[in-house]
Amino acid sequence: MSAPAASPFSLDHPAAYAAWRERKLADAPRALDELTVEVDDPRRLSAGEKAALLECIRRANMAIYASGCGSEADKQIPRQLGLQLGLSSLDGHFLTDDDGISPLSVSNTEDTETGGMRREFIPYTNQAIRWHTDGYYNPPQRTVRGMLLHCVESAESGGDNHLLDHEIAYLLLRDENPEFIRALSQPDAMLIPARVEEDGEARPAQPGPVFSVDAQGFLHMRYTARSKSIVWKDDALTQAAVACLASILKDGTPWTFQGRLEAGMGLVCNNVLHDRSAFSDSPARRRLLYRARYYERISG
């Protein structure tokens, strides 16, 4: 039996990291067009369409698709697309619909329990959302590794996204100071406090690392740039690492992408870093995206 390969994400294996880093930067796209794939119907990918999406995801952990679906409001689009990419275990929670897929739009509904609660959470408003990975508040057994966004209708104005491959963020931090990686890999580096409602605790406190490596050797990132409802470990190295990461995200990188999903377009990714600008709807155009979050990574 051959020995297992040294992980490039281990600080104990600088040679493995150097080899991985060289490959990563050689492959990494620098323009959103390099990650955009034209597909006819995401529910039924051709072999060529699927291969093109998977190649983009191999290079950057994400792909953008532009389809002929237009403003068709069909949740089978993200569901069937996900299944073709090995995504099946949806992360349902109290704000998703019963099918585990969230309709992201400005919630003006008060006549249902879920509609009323959605109004309290930023993804269901037109406010800007800071840099984050999805499900950063989840417990380890519900780690969100894959994500799919499908646009039914874009806003009248705004609603753009910035995107950054979390492996590039790791690379830039490690190049700056390998000890930043050690600090952000601590099991208590980032704490999401308990959320307490009037009737008691709705979600327990959730500590965890920013960077971790899963059983298959893939890098996972858990992060939010929000300043409320988050506690960073109070030591100098962790604080310096958090500040460095915030600077990378604020200043931008050659591998940071910006764009807006239009009707029929979507994002498929291994839970990369992303944000969202504020937006404005109009009577004629009301922003609606379907979001599906999964416990698997995209496979193939």
Architecture overview:
- Helix content is 26%, strand content 24%.
- The longest helix is centred in the last third of the chain and has 16 residues, at 236-251.
- Helix 5 packs across helix 6.
- The mean pLDDT is 92.
- The protein is globular.
- The protein has 300 residues and is of the alpha+beta class.
- The chain has one domain (15-294): 4-Layer Sandwich (Double-stranded beta-helix).
- Strands 1-2-16-5-19-3 form a six-stranded mixed sheet. Strands 4-17-7-15 form a four-stranded antiparallel sheet. Strands 11-8-14 form a three-stranded antiparallel sheet.
Give the structure's gist in a few sentences:
This protein is α+β, with helices and mostly antiparallel strands and 300 residues long.
Structural class: alpha+beta
How many H/I helices? 7
From the 3D structure, determine the CATH topology.
Answer: Double-stranded beta-helix
Strand order of the largest sheet: 1-2-16-5-19-3
- Taking all residues together, what is the mean pLDDT? 92
Characterize the overall form: globular
Query: What's the number of structural domains?
Result: 1
Helix content: 25-40%
How much is the radius of gyration in Å?
Answer: 19 Å
Would you state the CATH class?
Alpha Beta
Distance between the termini: 25 Å
Strand content: 15-25%
In total, the number of strands is 19
Low-pLDDT windows of residues: none
Secondary-structure element string: HEHEHEHEEEEHHEEEEEEEHEEEEE
CATH architecture: 4-Layer Sandwich
CATH superfamily: Clavaminate synthase-like
Largest sheet: 6 strands, mixed
